[in-house]
Amino acid sequence: MTATPVTAPASAPAISALGLRKSYGDKVVLDGIDLTIPEGTVFALLGPNGAGKTTTVQILSTLIAPDDGRAQVAGHDLARRPERVRAAIGVTGQFAAVDNLLTAEENLLLMADLRHLPRPEGRRRAAELLRRFDLTEAARKPVSTLSGGMRRKLDLAMTLVGDPRIIFLDEPTTGLDPRSRRTMWEIIRELVVDEGVTIFLTTQYLEEADQLADRIAVLDQGRLVAEGTSEELKRIVPGGHIRLRFATPGELDSAARHFGAAARDPEELTLRVPSDGGISTLRAVLDVLDAADVRAESLTVHTPDLDDVFLTLTGHGTPATATEMTR
Amino acid sequence: MSSLSYAAADSMTMLRRNLKHAMRYPSMTLSTVIMPVMMLLLFNYAFGGALGSGISGAPTGGGAYIDYVAPGIILMAATAGAVATAVGVCVDMTEGIVNRFRTMSISRAAFLTGHVVGSVIQTMIAIALVIGIALAIGFRPDASAVEWVAAIGLLGLLTLALTWLSAGMGLVAKTPESASNAPLPLTFLPFLGSAIVPTDSMPTGLRWFAEYQPFTPVIETLRGLLMGTGIGNSGYLALAWCVGLTLVGYLWARSAFGRTATL
């Protein structure tokens, strides 16, 4: 027996979509997307720029209509009851949707008014969100003077004013510095744990999907090319490895004898040893080299990233994201 | 609350937002006041002597030129407000916050209503200032209280029409720069009407245009209400133009807002 409160039929997903299609002119942006996202889970839509992530969010958040296909969000049909859907969702986009001419506090109060909260309740909620997102000091400053990370936090805080049950986060950390990104991740995790909301996240970063999502779907040129947990996805990607480079073919050969599963590249004089990227694997590799008394010229650790996922799943890479991915 | 009172509450919220913007960044509002004030001073002091003697016998009642030109310039304050509205709407549309509004359960009309009502309030304040300055430099209307109320009402209606039209312009404009250019024909039209000189002094083709364009009956009605010159059928024409343009502007802006989904 579980103590899960039964507010809706347990089987009703927070978001379900069937055959969503959208084109702009000749360009097919979404080419038949099916989704089922259970309540209270984090779902990540992973893909490079131009894959159709934002279009998917725009359709599911009632901003644009699909050319074909149906979807239900929070139990309401997107096409027939968009106003019911809007009442249940919150959207934080890629570009901070804040009013730059107002202060942070005024932005939150604006949301409270538009959610028709009574004045005192709105003030209480605004103060609470400012405190929670560490924005109290910035409360009276015009938003145009805040840093990118603070604006993004304010954006999310504004989304939360209405206590949405389903939150769409369209690339919530794109363009943020690593520290702000971690803060954002913590906030998102707390939301799921403390309030049980459903989160639909889009991202270009495998690491982000890995950190936050229960399930990940990979979107490429308007189609879902894979879906599963982060573990399942990594299994279909060629694993991480340690690359050792040697000065001579002789050294390469003698090293290769000590690593059973390694791949030899005689032209490059390199050896690829499978690895999970952990310290202990790295230490083990070094120990083997020491024991065999072979000197490697250089060593690089390679962890699977979005490029690997894409190369494996689609046969083409993601040039724009390649350098950013490893962070 | 019913959906109608939600719509009213949302519109009020949007209006408060726009007035807050205007008070914090008053440069746009100021430009709507400065333009007609400059015109007033220019036409009264620089051109007034020549123009005034040139149109003696025209329906100025034989008085000073300022009595002829002031109603026209007051009306220009309404057209100047149109530029501010178009720019304000366009700038707002380029911000991400409009997409946020669209994903919220708020009345669709509230965003535009807030802009339009805010602009009408600002423009009416500008009109009041221009009237005040005109009175200070010698404008002597002979209007009764009722005529004043009618004149203000007509100006309000014209402002509403121009504001809806310029809201539409702001919505379809790609950039704030083009949004500020779009209403320029509106600000220019009064010159090609009876604002500065009577239409019978114009060459035939221009006169024909001047007599049938919307601003001329509005100016003539305004002049009649304030100065007691003949209104004739201008009053009905002015009302019809204002109501018609309001409807066109409203429907246009509403459908333009429905179409635009940015990004």
TrEMBL record, chain A:
Compartments, record wording: Cell membrane
Pfam family name, one: ABC_tran
SUPFAM superfamilies registered for this protein in UniProt: P-loop containing nucleoside triphosphate hydrolases
GO cellular component terms attached to this protein's record: plasma membrane
Domain of life: Bacteria
Membrane topology: Peripheral membrane protein
Alphabetized UniProt keyword annotations: Antibiotic resistance, ATP-binding, Cell membrane, Membrane, Nucleotide-binding, Translocase, Transport
Molecular functions per Gene Ontology: ABC-type xenobiotic transporter activity; ATP binding; ATP hydrolysis activity
Major enzyme class: translocase
E.C. number(s) listed in UniProt: 7.6.2.2
GO BP terms, alphabetized: daunorubicin transport; doxorubicin transport; response to antibiotic
PANTHER family from the UniProt entry: ABC TRANSPORTER ATP-BINDING PROTEIN, DOXORUBICIN RESISTANCE ATP-BINDING PROTEIN DRRA
NCBIfam families, sorted: drrA (TIGR01188)
Similarity comment text for this entry: Belongs to the ABC transporter superfamily. Drug exporter-1 (DrugE1) (TC 3.A.1.105) family.
Record's protein name: ABC-type xenobiotic transporter
Species for this entry: Streptomyces gardneri
TrEMBL record, chain B:
Keywords attached to this entry: Antibiotic resistance, Cell membrane, Membrane, Transmembrane, Transmembrane helix, Transport
InterPro entries with a match to the protein in the record: ABC2_TM (IPR013525), ABC2_TM_bact-type (IPR047817), ABC_2_transport (IPR000412), Nod_factor_ABC_transporter (IPR051784)
MF-aspect GO terms: ABC-type transporter activity
Cellular location(s): Cell membrane; Membrane
Membrane topology according to the record: Multi-pass membrane protein
Pfam family, one: ABC2_membrane
Highest taxon listed in the record's lineage: Bacteria
Keyword Metal-binding recorded: no
Main location per the UniProt record: membrane
BP terms from Gene Ontology: response to antibiotic
Protein name: Transport permease protein
